[in-house]
Task: structure prediction
Amino acid sequence: MENQGNFRELDARYYMPAFGREIMIVRGQGSRVWDSSGREYIDCVAGIAVCSTGHCHPGVTGAICEQAKKLIHCSNLYYVPGQAELAEKLVLLTGMAKAFFSNSGAEANEGAIKLARLATGRKKFIAFTHGFHGRTMGSLAVTHKPPIREPFLPLEPRCTFVEYGDLDALRPAMGNDIAGVFVEPIQGEAGVITPPDGFLEGIRDLCDRHGALMIVDEVQTGMGRTGKWLAIQHTDVRPDIVTLAKGIASGFPMGALLAREGLEFHRGEHGSTFAGGPLACAAALATIRVIEEVMPSIPAKAELFRTSLSRFNPRVRGLMIGISVGDKCGDVQKACAERGLLVNCAADGNLRLVPPLVITPEEIQTACRILTEVLTAKNKLPATL
Result:
């Protein structure tokens, strides 16, 4: 293995500097990873809520290897092995009616935009402040975060942003020209921000009144992350469209668009060369089997995080944990890494933990001990240069 210094030099010379990073992860097993120098970490980032079954789960890697021996790619010109089975499974788990696969969450949200415009004949959307739906041009148009959106203005589709959690602000923005309302049931990129009671139900009611579609972005919150297959399932709300990705295939690139009865693409209206390929479907079906086994343990794991970090007022929804730490968030993240714990700084000084669903109670206790030590001493941390 080449030394990390050489990786840095190659990266600086040949790769566009779109990311800020310090370590290289070269190996993972369960909830632990190792960097290029051999240092071990408990991983509470999990590829940003992607490695739902942990790193290199044998059930998932075995399914990928077995499928790779048979067929890696055949395109959607033909029936794809595992594709219909996966669509059926997701429909049954989510209560939706039809599925369409993609390669990412941004692509799934692009598909949702297209489907909403087709179904309603309208072109305008509403989304919420601090929301995140992707970086492709369409998904970026419904993403609020100004630093990543404004350099690319003007964007399509046209989108109005209203305050997350504020139905009074949403009501006047709604109209008979709105195709759909994009909402995250929990805002992950913003730092695990939950809406007030009745907010999601209010969106459903307003969409029904105005003939708009309720589009629920479960890219980060779905696939068991909150203790249910979808975070929206903690309510009685039935969305029109749901988008998934991240934890759907344990790190194999995949996304999904799910829609209620009566909403679907027809021939020629949407497509993709790679989406829903044999390897992706094999990985996703294996991932679902593992999540079915571990999901009953998520409430207890969430409670262990909550009680262990209670002095810091954590926002805990299943295995999504957010803590407000202020302007030293970057220092906290770095100090945790130095002690063998990977955490992530989300927006506005919010620390985010989204560990693998297979994380053990012992690993949670170790992670919370390290985080407590760092947060207790955070005012003494040196400022990040």
In short: The domain at 4-56+297-380 is CATH 3.90.1150.10 (Aspartate Aminotransferase, domain 1).
